[in-house]
Amino acid sequence: MSTDEIIDRAIPHTRAGTRSTLPDDLLQAASRRLGTVALVWAGLWAFGLFMNNLVGPIISPDVPLDDAWPWPANPVAIAVILLSVALFGYTRKRACDCQFSLDLGLWYEVALAFAIGLVNQWTPNTVGLSWICVLVLVHPMIVPNTRPKILLAGLVAASMDPVGLAITGARGIPIPSLPQILWTYLPNYICAVLAVLPSHIITRLGRQVSHARELGSYQMGELLGRGGMGEVYSARHRMLRRPAAIKLIRPDALGAGNGERSGTIVERFKREAEAAANLHSPHTIALYDFGLTGDGNFYYVMELLQGVDLESLVVRFGPLPPARVVYLLQQVCHSLAEAHAIGLIHRDIKPGNLYSCRVGLEVDFVKVLDFGLVKAGPESAAPSAKLTAPDLTIGTPAYMAPEVAQGEALDGRADLYALGCVAYWLLTGKLVFTADTPMKMMIAHTETTPVAPSQRGELAISRSLDEVVLACLAKDRNKRPADADELSRRLAACDVGEPWTQECAAAWWGANLPEIRPSTGRRAPVSPALAVG
């Protein structure tokens, strides 16, 4: 697959030969607004059909349709409704070309103006302002485009009242003189010219946003996700055209809420990101770049993933077969083993931070996310790598080891406890403990003995796998597997029946996630490290 194909599938783009005036996410938002506007117009014309054909005859049975709704209004309304629904459908398609849809919006504006002009002027009407004034003035504010296109479409739309009168005149009905027509509908043309101003302002602001979103060598694209810690955007390298995901993290989410701790947090962020960038396991998400934005937000630039996180996987498809769980967990162990070997502790292992992806032709390929938020372990040789702001707790209570909840010194076995909680979730679709508050959850992890997953799951779980999961969940870290490599070996020795293979994974993905394909020319959905909080 070429680089361009990957980018085209991962990032919204414009038609060949056109220049986008807005960042990708704003362009996509404008395209979706166009669809919403089309639905509103469809509703207005449908309301006209209903009132004039059903309600009107009931209220005034002896009065025929008046000049405001002549007989052509019915077929015109039906045509506008069908056109509007089709435009809405296109703007909601996954493969929608957003810039092209905005160009379609200009044609749609002209079509609406023609419909209004035809109905309004079926019987000549030169009294008061035309609804076309509102259309040509407001439409560009909702659906922006380039100034020349806005001006051209506005002038054409403004001419639809005179065009309607010309059609009426061709039917042999007397119409006002040309000077009177031009004077009456001069406001249409004034509005068409004025409509260029808001479009210009929106375009200029869009370019300013685009410039502001240049982080290092990367250009930010559409918003992909939002959470408690920040936001995730699609991106591309300006020179290499490499697709990526950028995660913006608010300083307060890392504890840099005041001046005293900000310096410590910035230094910690820098050193730990440098350490995370040196992780080379294929099962650790690649970190391309990191830094601080002009307004003080931290950011990571990571590889863009195609797949689904393990939390969503269970929510959507239910508990996983034990063989598949072992297959996935061993890959996580591979990532953790490397990190722990250099003294890095993840501290937030949870299903939402583990992604089952398509990598090349391989599926069910696990990537571990958020190693940029790790903490250097006690065995780290560099004291400066242990910088931690006071009162800063990172982790998720449902997957938090007792020593984390108690604020004790940590080592890699805290991650193994969390991985045991993940295994429990994958096997049963249930958390190890449930509680009303995060504090009660942490107390349960500290004091309550867990029930074996085989007693809570719907699928058959062997005693050997039960024992490994419960060993990971031991309150005493010395009773857990010594390290990730040992855990991987113990998982491999569990009785899970027929092993899960790439053939099994490929068959499952083909049946359940057919939209995520290696190279089909279709835009595949991306899971861009959305665990933002």
Can you walk me through this structure?
The chain has 19 helices and 11 strands. Helices cover 49% and strands 11% of the residues. The chain has 3 domains: 3-207, no CATH class; 213-302, 2-Layer Sandwich (Phosphorylase Kinase, domain 1); 307-512, Transferase(Phosphotransferase) domain 1 (Transferase(Phosphotransferase), domain 1, Orthogonal Bundle), CATH 1.10.510.10.
Question: What is the string of SSEs from the N terminus onward?
Answer: HHHHHHHHHHEEEEHEEEHHEEEEHHHHHH
Which sheet architecture does the biggest sheet show? 6 strands, antiparallel
CATH superfamily assignment of the largest domain?
A: Transferase(Phosphotransferase) domain 1
Whole-number tally of structural domains: 3
- Strand content bin: 5-15%
* Number of E strands: 11
Poorly predicted runs are: 1-20, 379-393, 519-533
- Fraction of residues in helix: 40-55%
Instruction: Output the CATH topology of the largest domain.
Output: Transferase(Phosphotransferase), domain 1
Please state the average pLDDT score.
80
Q: Which strand order does the major sheet show?
A: 1-2-3-4-6-5
Structural class, by secondary structure, is alpha+beta
Number of helices: 19
